[in-house]
Amino acid sequence: MHYKRILLKLSGESLMGERQYGIDPDRLAEYAQEIKTVIDKGVEIAIVIGGGNIFRGVAGASKGMDRVQGDHMGMLATVINGLALQGSLEDAGIQTRLQSAIQINEVAEPFIRRRAIRHLEKGRVVIFGGGTGNPYFTTDSAAVLRAIEIHADVILKGTRVDGIYTADPEKDKEATKFDFITFDDVIRKGLKVMDTTAFTLSQENELPIIVFDMNNKGNLLKVVTGENIGTKVNL
């Protein structure tokens, strides 16, 4: 395997499938099968999911809601998504642990770094919910932070496009895709890969990011085995 331990970042919107909001059980089942193919190869997987399919703190704040309150609601949304993904993974026969950065002990373990690493070593998928546990930080930041803490080899950002382009490929038909790009070039070109805090943290810790299309069956396994899928951001 090209990567032994990965951090998979999924957006909350990715769980909607073709719906306008909420969670699509069929999409969850598809993701569970994709993850199972990688687990069966002996790869250790941790996952961070966003909460945008349920609630987005920034959107709430833009409409007059207190930002801290809104972000706390967003953290709870990520725990809901984590529980949903946990159920689908366990239905597929995968041992899973949900850890939360906010205390919610009836439904999730507290985030304890050493315990998370031990779960990974035992072949369990670890889902990190609750973001970083702090307002004003996105789940992108949580993904990079957790990846560094557990010594992940790479961050895999599963999206609905097959990599990083010169412009939004859904809006600009002339946009061209990068196979490889440096952190400095992403910043210089003003490309949106992750929010600035997350991206800078990844760059400072020399942690590569691969952006790929999670909805294309088999792509996750191809990325993990080192195939040239998506776009790799490196030093």
Strand runs, count: 11
N-to-C SSE string, H for helix and E for strand: EHEHHEEHEHEEEEHHEHE
**Helix amount, in percent?**
25-40%
- State the shape: globular
End-to-end distance: 22 Å
Mean pLDDT: 93
Radius of gyration in whole Å, from Cα? Answer: 17 Å
Please tell me about this protein's structure:
This protein has 8 helices and 11 strands. It has 235 residues and is an alpha/beta fold. It has a domain at 5-153: Acetylglutamate kinase-like (Carbamate kinase, 3-Layer(aba) Sandwich), CATH 3.40.1160.10. The strands form 2 sheets. The chain has a 9-stranded mixed beta sheet with strand order 4-3-5-2-1-6-10-11-9, sandwiched between helices. A two-stranded antiparallel sheet has the order 7-8. Helix 1 (25-39) links the parallel strand 1 and strand 2. Helix 1 packs across helix 3 (67-91) and helix 5 (139-149) runs parallel beside helix 7 (196-204). The longest helix has 25 residues, at 67-91. The chain is globular.
What is the secondary structure topology, with strand pairs?
Blueprint: E1 5-10, H1 25-39, E2 44-49, H2 57-62, H3 67-91, E3 96-100, E4 109-110, H4 113-121, E5 125-129, H5 139-149, E6 154-159, E7 164-165, E8 177-178, E9 180-182, H6 183-189, H7 196-204, E10 209-213, H8 219-224, E11 231-234
Parallel strand pairs: 1-2, 1-6, 2-5, 3-4, 3-5, 6-10, 9-11
Antiparallel strand pairs: 7-8, 10-11
Helix pairs in contact: 1-3, 5-7
